[in-house]
Design goal:
Layout (H helix, E strand, L loop, with lengths): L1 E7 L6 H12 L4 E6 L7 H5 L8 H4 L2 H21 L28 E3 L2 E5 L12 H13 L6 E6 L5 H4 L8 E6 L3 H16 L3 E9 L4 H7 L5 E7 L2 H8 L10 H10 L1
Parallel strand pairs: 1-5, 1-6, 2-4, 2-5, 6-7, 7-8
Antiparallel strand pairs: 3-4
């Protein structure tokens, strides 16, 4: 396996829990790097039993102000080129400041490992009036574009809720997108929208049903677009919920059979 996989969905649908579970399963035969690009998610590392590095990706590469400066440079250059008719279309804000690298090159300053599972935080909102998450998203896009995976290496990206990361092109290097859909109309509408955007971006797309039961499964399936591939389902699990609430590591054994089947399909 050698893939970059983005996990998407509405807030509270179970993205982080799902990532924790499949990371544990995939790590049996692969090196798995998890990138937490949700600026408001504070507990993913605890589900994985992985420490957080002293420095986030954004801090390592100079912090918010430096990354925003790079974004502005690119935007201004793009507008100038448009003015003199050397570039078509809207000015881009996509930075390109990193060199190509492998997982083995990544410094311990911003990545931590527990066995075959690695963990990186793109950056967090730490102060009032700090500003938007644009620098984290832009840097994560550049980082993912420059990571060269080897055989038996996987990157799982825990995205912010919604679709802003797709609109900003962070999925440019993605091999596939997976949406987590819980029994809610918001989750279904979002999954259909992401499916449409994935098709437009020529990205493989699939859905996992989460917290599902016999009373809600058919209702969810009939509202998902016909061309969406549903590759697995997970019922609500009180033991996993209690582990999450207690800020403890998620136990794969609770749903190992279902997760194994899902991993075989993705």
């Amino acid at each position: 396996m050698k893939e970059k996989i983005f996990i998407n969905g509405r807030g509270g649908c179970g993205k982080s829990t799902f990532i924790s579970l499949i990371a544990k399963e995939l790590s049996k035969n692969n090196k798995v790097l998890i990138i937490d690009m949700d600026e408001g998610n504070l507990g993913l590392n605890k589900m994985l039993n992985v420490d957080v590095a002293d420095t986030s990706l954004m801090e390592y590469y100079g912090g918010r102000d430096k990354i925003m400066g790079e974004i502005l440079k690119v935007g201004i250059k793009g507008m100038v080129l448009e003015k003199i008719n050397l570039k078509d279309g809207a000015a881009s804000d996509s930075i390109d400041i990193l060199d190509n690298m492998k997982l083995s090159d990544l410094p311990s300053d911003y990545v931590t490992w527990n066995g075959n599972i690695g963990f990186i935080e793109s950056g967090k909102i730490n102060d009032p009036d700090e500003g938007c998450a644009c620098p984290m998203g832009n840097l994560t896009r550049d980082f993912l574009n420059h990571i060269e995976l080897q055989d038996n290496e996987v990157i799982l990206v825990d995205t912010s809720a919604g679709i802003e990361h797709i609109g900003r092109g962070v999925i440019e290097s993605a091999d596939k997108l997976i949406s987590i859909v819980d029994p809610s109309s918001d989750a279904i509408l979002l999954a259909n929208k992401i499916g449409s955007l994935s098709k437009e971006a020529s990205k493989e797309y699939m859905v996992i049903l989460n917290k599902i039961d016999e009373n809600t499964k058919d209702l969810v399936l009939e509202q998902l677009d016909d061309d969406i591939s549903v590759v697995g389902e997970l019922e609500y699990n009180s033991h996993i919920a209690q582990s999450n609430l207690s800020q403890k590591e998620i136990n794969l054994e609770e749903v190992e059979g279902e997760i194994k089947e899902i991993c075989a399909k993705i």
